[in-house]
User: Fold these one by one.
Assistant:
Number 1:
Amino acid sequence: MPKPEASRGQVLLRVLACGVCRTDLHIVKGELPPQRESLIPGHQIVGEIVAGATPELPLGTRVGVSWLGGTDGECWYCKHHFENLCDSPTFTGYSVNGGFAEFAVARADFVFPLPLALDALHAAPLLCAGIIGFRSLRVAGVQPGERVGLFGFGASAHLTIDVLRAWGCEVYVSTRGESHRKLAESLGARWVGSEADRPPVELDRAITFAPSGKVVVAALSSL
């Protein structure tokens, strides 16, 4: 593929790392309908700006790029701060080329400057699973010191536990897989059980990560 060029409002990134998401695999296998004849997947990009710099994003700035690569900014959702529900979204590594390459372009208003203390390999997963997990905590309205239940403990859920512990929360994990239960224990969960077990205390918040109606009922009953 030729080296991409940054258009107006875009930055050109030298890719430092790019995580692999299950969605990337769905795209590559054709389980999601293609939107382009040829495509570079990858939407958990950590890159260094090498062209298209702005005063806010000078050359050399290290930034992250996520799945949501752009919105129209004009629909009802965008104007009411629900841009994740935009009627005309752009998806990194799906409707536009992504980060499984040496270089990638991204909209300058949809990149995230990254702190220097966070290395590229650890930053990449935060740009998908990390965003999902942290947004779930915000939508749930979690407050410091609360008892929080995580129902399902995959990629997104396990990245939230450090945040919850930093907030002084007690974390209760209900999940199906034994390996996930062991991981939850190792990360400091106060209590860990199977999907059929009920936490030993009433919870202040319950967040479901497993795509199952039964899990929703279990989470509601634990509050």
Number 2:
Amino acid sequence: MTTTQAPRRRRDAEENRAALLEAAGAVLNRDPGASLDAIAAEAGLSRRALYGHFATRDDLIHSLLAHGVSRVLAATEQVEHPDPATLLALIGVRMWREVESVRVMAQFTVRGPFQQELAFGLAPLRDRVRHAVTVGAASGRIRDDIDPGILARLVEGAVLSVLDEATRSPIDAATGERLVALSVLGMLGFSADEAHALAADTTGLHA
């Protein structure tokens, strides 16, 4: 092998792996039980090529999950706001934007057999949500009648409830963002009028 062939083969391998992950996201979003053959065909590769990267279907899903977690963490790390309630609503909306296009696959991951792995991967985000809830409750900005740890999980559940509904009904991206923002703010103790007003006044939220 020449010195130019090795880098080219590495690039080809990286491109094939990326193509397989993209194909897996698309195919599993249509059918979470889809076969490896269907995923390989979607990527325009052979089953043998797929096995060169992923030994089993679970290996492929683990890699897809890790890729998705990295995207969500990278996206939400960019969200900043001095008000904890607004920060939590913005984080919820950003999460929705990351999973909206693969909502069925995201729901399968969140509700299915990989939820423990997902929880571990998203631990930094969950810690940040819990911190924002604690600060908001201490400052009187959000409700303080629920333990911060429990309320943080309920806020997460508010986002997931919109994801669940989006797999059952034709919710478009903008409507999903609005529902996530209002659901999170409602869970934090805001009235409907207060939640709509905050969303209307905040760049990045939709009322």
Number 3:
Amino acid sequence: MTLRSRVLLAAGLSLALLAAAVAYVLVAGRRAAAPAVASAAVDASPGDRLLFRSTAPDSYGRVATVPRGDAAGPRTVSALACDRVYAAGGAAICLRPDGPLATYQLAVLDAHLAVRETYPLVGVPNRARVSPSGHVLAWTVFVTGDSYNGGRFSTRAGMLNTATGATVDTLETFAVVRDGRPYRAADLNFWGVTFADDQHFYATMSTAGHRYLVAGDVAAHP
């Protein structure tokens, strides 16, 4: 590549970065200007609004909604704060601190974000999901202390069926089949559960330095 070509390439990249920065500032400005409404209207009912965890300085960590398809539209902010939140089927899950100590809890929320039940969590919240029906909740937390990884973080993923009360403390208790044969290993880690329905789900599995997408069946749990 000639010197002239390099100069032209550098100039083109600079213009592209400048354009991206300008676009970001404009979008951020629209978001900052969007009014935050009182908390009464925030709920987890299916509809034309998206529910999310706010990262705005004046409402950091609080659950909020915004019109679907208009991220710069008016935001409705609740008084509920979560480290992770997810809603589906008129129910929601909130992973949040449990008191002043470094402990956490899972809060089961109804369609109006009122807390129905709470459960202690062992680990730092990482991800949360709800099945389409709103009946099954899943969570992933970071933990330490597994002997196989020298004190580094590992993950635990579990599930709770609010309709039946059935719980899965960790997906590591499921039988794993890889390449048509049972697979067992001490370093199995699971995270990022996504539901197809109340019985079938997908998750990421890590073992022996590799990651796999796995399909799970709750009915197959011992």
